[in-house]
Sequence to fold (396 residues):
Amino acid sequence: MENQKNISRAVGMEVSIAISETARLCDVDVVAAFPITPQTHIVEHLADLVADGLLDAEYIPVESEHSAMSACLGAAAAGARTFTATAAQGLEHMHEALFIASAMRLPIVMAIANRALSAPISVWGDHSDVMAARDTGWISVFAENGQEAVDLTIMSFKIAEDNRVLLPVFLNIDGFHLSHMIEPIILPSAEETKAFLPGISYPSPLHPSKPVAMGECGGPGIYTECKKQQVEVLKESMTVIKQVFVDFNRAFGRQYKVVEEYQLKDAETALLIMGSYAETAMTAVDKMRKEGKKVGLIRLRLFRPFPFDDLRAAAQGLKTLIVLDRAVSVGGPGGPVMSEVRSAFYNEKNMPQVVGIVGGLGGRDITVSDFERIFQLGTAEAKGATAEYIMYGVKE
Fold:
């Protein structure tokens, strides 16, 4: 790709490649790379950028995803701007090290091309992988399309590296449904990116001339206090996340919110959703609105820290909120997002009846007509006031 420094440009590009190009614009220092479908194009293109001299970074090909995250830990601890990508079993293979990254306050950014977990073996997309890692202490954001993936990559570094935060970030993009799509995308210039995202300034980097201790043993006398601090800093990162969204809008003219509303004015029933399926759901909402149905949509941009107050504000006035989970909590109440939403509304006044729908597992498409059916099923289920959930699309 032509290395334009001063001009934003609109290009048709695969979303995975766009994320790699954005990592280049962010001037990452270290990339740890291990291939796994459907994120492989991200690290492959980064390898090309480094080999072609378009990105001055240390590119570390490793022998496993656990090794990839371990390399990221060391790089971030030394003060390097650090990036990697993974999916599905790769994310779970990293699981142990994910806790270390967040607890040691290491601002790593990782793109996840969300994919179903085995068994049966599936390379197609759902949210099983990131939901299995939801409590590892990472900030977790979801993109709906290629432009959002680009924008959120830049913002993820800005958020992670803020000295009030210093936490790693999951950037979630739906496997195949988004990762392999070619879309028109506006890439900012290198100058614009640098103005918004200056160089990293990690406060206590590992360095031979100034030794510091990281990850030392913590006994029962301090462990609880350490976890309490970790909980608080993740919650407090909400302030920085919202401010970065505002600053990004000022710099680039594209607005983001942690909870985004669509057609909610006078809506009685709304669907809550995350990821690329939201755009199909919006088409269904538009169609139903033309038919006189009072429906709307809530898009959850941020999953960790969970935006309790913003969700409650968006849901005011609704009678029914249908939560679409693309992962199932086996043996639990349905899906993990539904559990969070119900806890947000517990003991609150004027909150809607929450209905859980689990669908789109293993990459199964949900069409406009499917979303219309989901609205119908969710409304009917709410009238029964049951705590059960619907597994949508199960073939009899």
In short: Residues 13 and 131 are 28 Å apart (CA to CA). The chain has two domains: 9-252, 259-391.
